[in-house]
Write a structure and sequence with these properties.
The structure holds two protein chains of two kinds.
Chain A: E1 11-20, E2 27-37, E3 42-46, H1 53-61, E4 68-73, E5 76-77, E6 85-88, H2 100-109, H3 115-128, H4 144-156, E7 162-166, H5 174-191, E8 194-198, H6 202-208, E9 211-215, E10 223-228, H7 237-240, H8 244-268
Parallel strand pairs in A: 3-8, 3-9, 6-7, 7-8
Antiparallel strand pairs in A: 1-2, 1-4, 4-5, 9-10
Helix pairs in contact in A: 2-3, 2-4, 3-4, 4-5, 6-8
Chain B: H1 3-26, H2 33-40, H3 43-56, H4 58-90, H5 92-107, H6 114-121, H7 125-149, H8 153-161, H9 166-184, H10 186-203, H11 209-218, H12 222-250
Helix pairs in contact in B: 1-2, 3-12, 4-7, 4-10, 4-11, 6-7, 7-9, 7-10, 10-11, 10-12, 11-12
The chains are: A alpha/beta, B mainly alpha.
């Protein structure tokens, strides 16, 4: 197996096109997306709803094959599920028939780790996300934030090389979101994996990321801006929001994002007034 | 409502029905007592009949036969339902081919099969088991099929991202999901296994609760019919209670269903 070339990025997308369906009903979700995420870099992707942000993540994860272009992780071309990628989904992805502990432990067991050792490590991770007392609860007995923390432990216990996060804190209330953001940053700062974090919340993106990438409204969404966030780390997501620099960056990105959001909104409005 | 009040009211209903029954079959309110008793018997006669059935021990043999038929029908129906449901859910093409035939077989009222099963399997327990199986199979089959089909795509994608191969997906995702659907139909399928057994016995047999009731009916022994019916309902309720115990243990991961106790 050829070793990855030096200075290669952790995640790399080259001219990725994604088209769903074919012929007359074909829908091009993403067009010519090129993006590099360096090792240890936290990149947030923002854009209006339905712009194909999640589609990009699925391409990187290997859940979706692009119609053109290519993705690579750690210098290797993506073909099929990427084993060393951790994926945190927006919706509930825990197995409802397993306890919090088993949900985390199973991630190791499927890789061949013996059950006692897997459970031991899972306990450690539940403690790190502050859920030691809830190890024996089933997902339906946990709150939305607690479920997300179990999912985070489940993803991180495997020690993946990269993290893909698809609006993971989207369904949570504002306070829980801020807490989860801090938890994520503190866990991430210990070993700094490359992160692709999709969100529609610009504030969250700026508070967490090193770089914020903006996508245009779909269909045929493109990457239209790439901003560096030069705020100091370690960050406290609540405090950083009071920083004047935070507002400058946010305003700069919003000036690009706003028109795209308006575009998506006006496209959607006549068709789906209920949303 | 408080638990005590509820229980008192529930017992009150039973007493009221028994009292009404007693009064109407003791005094000539609706007509001649003898005639009324011929149609409705009396609480005391029915009680005596039940007591005699247990005292002489006749009933145990019949209960045992009905129980055996019910359990066999349940086991065979469930196992085949799980296996075939699973297989078809994972083989959409095969499922599409068989779909109209499965719907047709399920649409058939099972009672019409009873005579043919008696022809095939004789008057012993197996014709009753077969009738029960045709009822249980479809309930379990449709539930398992649904269970495998309706595994949440997110749970599935997540499991794949955790590195599960097909075998592991089966064990950790498809199987528990299908089983949970099967267990959610446990009450219905056990109930139908019993219906199959009793209806089969009723239509032709030499033992079982259905046979007991049928025998009493054929000689206009109303006390015997009511006695058999009461034993049968107590029997069904006990089985249902056992199923609830099993279910609570196995499905503890499930959120409580709204609107049900």
């Amino acid at each position: 197996m050829p070793s990855p070339p030096p200075h290669s990025s952790a995640i790399s997308l080259k001219n990725v096109d994604v088209t769903f369906g074919s012929g007359h009903g074909a829908y091009r979700a993403v067009e010519a997306a090129t993006l590099d995420v360096a090792a240890g870099e936290f990149v947030a992707i923002v854009g209006p709803t339905g712009c194909g942000k999640s589609t990009l993540l699925n391409v990187v994860a290997g859940l979706l094959t692009p119609s053109a272009g290519s993705a690579s992780v750690g210098g290797r071309k993506v073909a099929g599920i990427v084993g060393d990628a951790g994926y945190l989904f927006q919706a509930d992805a825990l197995m409802p028939w397993k306890t919090a502990l088993d949900n985390v432990a199973v991630a190791l067991e499927v890789a061949g780790e013996p059950r006692p050792a897997a459970r031991e490590k899972a306990r450690g991770w539940l403690a790190r996300v502050g859920l030691s007392r809830f190890a024996d609860r089933y997902p339906h007995q946990l709150s939305g934030g607690q479920k997300k923390r179990v999912a985070l432990a489940q993803t991180l216990v495997r020690d993946p090389a990269i993290l893909l996060m698809d609006e993971p804190f989207g369904p949570l209330d504002a306070q829980t979101r801020a807490l989860m953001g801090d938890l994520l940053l503190s866990l991430w700062s210990s070993d700094r994996k490359a992160v692709m974090f999709v969100t529609h919340d610009l504030e969250e993106a700026v508070a967490l990321a090193d770089r914020v990438v903006v996508m245009s409204a779909g269909p045929s969404a493109r990457i239209i801006a790439d901003h560096r966030v030069d705020l100091p780390r370690p960050r406290e997501t609540h405090d950083i929001r009071l920083d004047p620099r935070f507002h400058e960056i946010q305003r700069a990105i919003w000036s690009v994002l706003k028109s795209e959001v308006m575009k998506a909104y006006s496209d959607e409005l006549p068709m789906e007034p209920a949303r | 409502m408080k638990r005590g009040t509820l229980l008192a009211l529930q017992i009150g209903v039973a007493i009221a029905i028994l009292a009404l029954w007693y009064v109407l079959t003791t005094w000539p309110i609706l007509g001649e007592v003898k005639q009324i008793r011929f149609f409705f018997s009396t609480p005391y006669d029915v009680w005596q009949r039940i007591w005699k059935m247990f005292a002489t021990g006749v009933i145990w043999k019949h209960l045992w036969i009905t129980l055996t038929e019910t359990i066999l029908a349940f086991l065979i129906g469930s196992i085949s339902g799980v296996l075939i449901g699973f297989w078809l859910a994972r083989q959409p093409r095969v499922a599409a081919v068989f779909d109209p035939y499965i719907k047709m077989a399920n649409a058939l009222p099972r009672v019409v099969l009873a005579p043919i099963f008696m022809l095939w399997f004789g008057l012993g327990i197996w014709s009753k088991v077969a009738l029960g199986v045709t009822l249980v199979f479809f309930i379990v089959f449709f539930n398992v099929y649904q269970g495998v089909k309706e595994v949440s795509p997110v749970v599935l994608a997540n499991a794949r991202m955790l590195g599960m191969n097909e075998r592991q997906l089966f064990r950790h995702v498809y199987w528990p999901s299908a089983l949970s659907w099967m267990f959610s139909s446990l009450h219905t399928s056990i109930g139908f296994a019993l219906v199959g057994a009793v209806v089969g016995e009723y239509l032709g047999s030499a033992a079982g609760l259905g046979y007991l009731i049928h025998e009493a009916e054929s000689v206009f022994d109303v006390a015997g019919v009511f006695g058999g019916m009461i034993v049968l309902s107590v029997f069904v309720i006990s089985i249902d209670w056992l199923v609830t115990l099993v279910e609570n243990r196995l499905l503890s991961w499930r959120p409580p269903v709204q609107g049900q106790g």
